[in-house]
Design a protein that fits this description.
Blueprint (H helix, E strand, L loop, with lengths): L1 H15 L1 E3 H8 L3 H13 L3 E4 L2 E4 L11 H4 L4 H11 L8 E4 L3 H9 L6 E4 L2 H7 L6 E4 L3 E3 L4 E3 L3 H5 L6 E4 L3 E2 L4 E4 L2 H13 L2 E6 L10 E5 L5 E4 L3 H9 L1
Parallel strand pairs: 4-5, 4-9, 5-6, 9-12, 12-14
Antiparallel strand pairs: 1-3, 2-3, 7-8, 10-11, 11-13
Helix pairs in contact: 2-3, 5-6, 6-7
Length: 244
């Protein structure tokens, strides 16, 4: 019964592009709670994604549902700027930090003081923002440039990181679902974040409040893997997310 119902959900989403929990409940003649449980299972299987109260099927041939970098810059920019100002307190001279290719980390890079730190990143915009800083040692992951996301893809990333001891990995993501799974909009960025999350001594996740209870195309890891979070969500929501 459950398997048939979940198959029906996927079929409906393929035909309708995206549907709300309520719409699925009415079409399947089951409760919204049942639909939510089914969607959570389908999400954990990588078959659907959920955002803004709607679910849609993941088309595996694309692995690419994310917005271009220049679009993400305009989304919740005031909240991102506030979050990154708070993140500056975590950075001290002498540290080796890694930054992902998120728009949030771009805002952080623009605010970084010109002090003696070592920054490693796969982000072209972050490299441009830091290129004229005299005291910041800047290492780019290099590789093939993905212009849509403003990031480089390097198949030798793990080998490259063997010579770097990352003190702090600062990153953002597409969302955190109700199970504490971290998601990104594409496998390109998710893979980079997953590797750095495992190798850095500490990690700092920067999230605006729109990212809670959201999923995406590719899994990064779990909230349990993250050591610290900064968010503009209220303290209760942030604590609940970290407790998942």
């Amino acid at each position: 019964m459950k398997a048939a119902r979940q198959h029906a959900i996927v079929e409906l989403l393929m035909n309708q592009n995206s549907l709300t929990t309520e719409a699925l409940s009415l079409q399947l003649n089951v409760s919204k709670e049942t639909v939510r449980r089914d969607l959570s299972e389908l999400q954990s299987q990588g078959k659907v994604s959920r955002k803004h109260g709607r679910a849609k099927v993941i088309h595996r041939e694309s692995h690419d549902s994310g917005d271009p970098f220049h679009i993400r810059l305009k989304s919740h920019y005031a909240h991102k700027a506030d979050i990154t100002r708070e993140a500056l307190a975590w950075i001290e001279p002498g540290m080796v930090i890694a930054l992902d290719a998120s728009s949030t980390c771009w805002y952080l890079a623009r605010q970084l003081p010109d002090v003696e730190i070592h920054v490693f990143t796969n982000s072209q915009p972050v490299c441009q923002a830091l290129s004229k800083r005299e005291h910041i040692q800047l290492t780019c992951s290099g590789g093939t440039l993905q212009r849509k996301y403003g990031c480089y893809v390097n198949t030798s990333l793990i080998s490259q990181l063997k010579s770097l001891d990352i003190d702090l990995f600062i990153f953002s993501c597409e969302g955190i679902d109700s199970n504490g799974v971290l998601w990104d909009s594409n496998a390109i960025n998710a893979d980079f974040k997953s590797v750095l999350l495992k190798r850095a001594s500490q990690s700092l996740l920067l999230l605006d409040k729109s990212k809670f209870d959201r999923s995406g195309e590719a899994q990064i890891g779990h909230l349990d893997d993250v050591t610290h979070i900064i968010s503009d969500a209220n303290a209760g929501a942030s604590a609940a997310a970290k407790a998942l």
